[in-house]
Amino acid sequence: MQPLPVPCPAHLIPVATGTGAFHDAYRNAMMNSAVFVVIEHEGNRWTVKADTLTAGPSHLVTDAVNEEVRAAITRLVERNEVDWGAYMGPVYFMMHGVRNEERARELAAALQAALYGDLESLTQAVPLTA
Q1: Which DSSP letter does residue 99 get?
Q2: CA nearest 77: which of 130, 114, 119, 15?
Q3: 6-27 b/e with 16+ CB inside 10 Å = b?
Q4: What are residue 48's DSSP bridge partners?
Q5: What's the rounded Cα separation, in Å, for the pair 49 and 65?
Q6: What are the backbone angles phi and psi of residue 55, rounded to the nearest 5°?
Q7: Is there a contact between 100 and 107 (Cβ–Cβ < 8 Å)?
Q8: 25 DSSP β-pair partners
Q9: What single-letter DSSP state applies at residue 76?
Q10: Beta strands in 29-98 (DSSP E)
Q11: Could you give the strand order of the β-sheet that contains 36-42, starting from the edge strand earlier in sequence?
Q12: pLDDT tens string for the chain (130 positions)?
């Protein structure tokens, strides 16, 4: 399995619904020293998951990036786009309750880019004003 490109286009974000698919995607990210990012289907909603541990000890996410990611996730919670109780890093990120697959892919791609230091996609996906 090829590693995801950075930044990853939304349509390439893997769907990891089910234990086997999740573990395969996680192992792949680990083998490629890449940030793990997937979406999962849960009932009629979607979940976005990301983990920076798979990228290895040399991958650092700055405090400034972590603050921007946390602020974006907080805006999503406040706008009822994701459920309360989202994991907001600094290593592991999870957003439950995303309304559809397209939006989950958009948020996952933006989060992946941000975790590599590119905040532009996150700013576009989660603007300061709704």
Answers
A1: S
A2: 130
A3: ebbebeebbbbeeeeebeebbe
A4: 39, 95
A5: 17
A6: -80, -10
A7: no
A8: none
A9: H
A10: 36-42, 45-51, 87-88, 92-98
A11: 36-42, 45-51, 92-98, 87-88
A12: 678 889 999 999 999 998 899 999 999 999 999 999 999 999 999 999 999 999 999 999 999 999 999 999 999 999 999 999 999 999 999 999 999 999 999 999 999 999 999 999 999 999 998 6
In this structure, which amino acid lies at residue 2? Q
List C-alpha distances in Å: 72 to 27, 77, 97, 128. Answer: 28, 9, 15, 8
Scored b (16 or more CB within 10 A) or e, 82-103 reads beeebebbeeebbbbbbeeeeb
Cβ-based burial of 44 (10 A; exposed 0-12, middle 13-18, buried ≥19): exposed
Read off the amino acid at residue 91: V
